[in-house]
Specification:
Blueprint: H1 3-16, H2 32-57, H3 63-87, H4 92-106
Helix pairs in contact: 2-3
């Protein structure tokens, strides 16, 4: 499955999700509060991931027993990134490749 297909699946899911606003609508200057909400959600998911790692580092949890929890939180972060990309008409595959080229020049890696 390609990233574009995954984004399409997420958009279909979002179109059916009912709430205080339309979860799949395009973001513009008139509804920037939706992007703000998505960023807050993203930060919350990163926080949940960080909390698991914190507990592993201090010895309350083990990595092997909580690897599935780590995977789930990483996917939650990924979902918010997908949503922000399609709701802002960002071609995430094309933008990734553009950024990779920029980073290769920045770090003097001309071939991978």
């Amino acid at each position: 499955m390609t990233l574009a297909e995954i984004m399409k699946l997420q958009k279909l899911f979002d179109e059916k999700h009912k709430g205080a606003f339309s979860w799949h609508q395009k973001i513009n200057s008139e509804n920037i509060h939706i992007l703000e909400y998505l960023i807050i959600g993203l930060i919350g998911e990163v926080g949940e991931l960080a909390n698991i790692i914190k507990k592993i580092r201090r010895g309350d949890l083990t990595y092997s027993e909580h690897k599935d929890d780590i995977a789930e939180e990483i996917v939650d972060v990924f979902i918010y990134l997908l949503k922000m990309a399609y709701q802002n008409d960002i071609d995430i595959e094309q933008e990734f490749l553009r950024k990779l080229e920029k980073n290769k020049r920045r770090f003097k890696m001309f071939e991978l």
